[in-house]
Specification:
By secondary structure, the chain is an alpha+beta fold. The protein is built from four helices and six strands. The longest helix has 22 residues. The protein is globular.
């Protein structure tokens, strides 16, 4: 894979600033909000992927007691990675930025942790960056287990209609 000289992953706090990033992202879930995470017992870590000084993505992981393994949490339905919004970029540029951020995070996690178990949100549709880590090396590679989620549009339940109309 290509080198990402301008990209880096840095640790951050799960606080109000983190929540602003989570709430402004269309690919984040409420399971990353500080009010949810801080109400749980677990060893949570938050990271930012930056291009220079610009935040590109966030990453929430749950570690085991040894802090060597990303293990997830039973009550956190989706953990892992989400992206900030790219209002000024076209689709190709947005996809490129997201892929580079994924690559940076995937490589960082592989370097830092022995075992990684993430449950990514369905909005993250391209996992190739994980699949390609150590593709040409003689090192352990990610093994994905892809499961699909269905979305149901339940907005009609907000409308007040007589029962006969259903």
């Amino acid at each position: 894979m290509s080198k990402l000289n301008n990209y880096k992953v840095v640790a951050t706090q799960i606080d109000g600033d983190w929540d602003i990033l989570v709430e402004s992202s269309s690919s984040a879930t409420p399971f990353a909000l500080s009010s949810f995470v801080n109400a749980l017992h677990g060893n949570f870590r938050a990271f930012l992927c930056k291009k220079g000084d610009e935040i590109i993505a966030g990453c929430l992981v749950v570690l085991d007691d040894t802090e060597h393994n990303v293990v997830g949490h039973d009550l956190v339905v989706h953990d892992g990675i989400f992206f900030r919004e790219f209002e000024k970029l076209n689709r190709a540029q947005k996809n490129s930025e997201q892929f580079k951020a994924l690559q940076c995070i995937a490589e960082f996690l592989a370097e830092e942790y022995s075992h990684i178990d993430l449950t990514l949100a369905p909005m993250l549709t391209d996992v190739r960056a994980f699949q390609w880590v150590h593709y040409h090396d003689n090192k352990p590679m990610y093994q994905e287990s892809i499961r699909y989620t269905s979305f149901l549009d339940i907005r009609e339940f907000l409308e007040k209609k007589p029962l006969e109309d259903f």
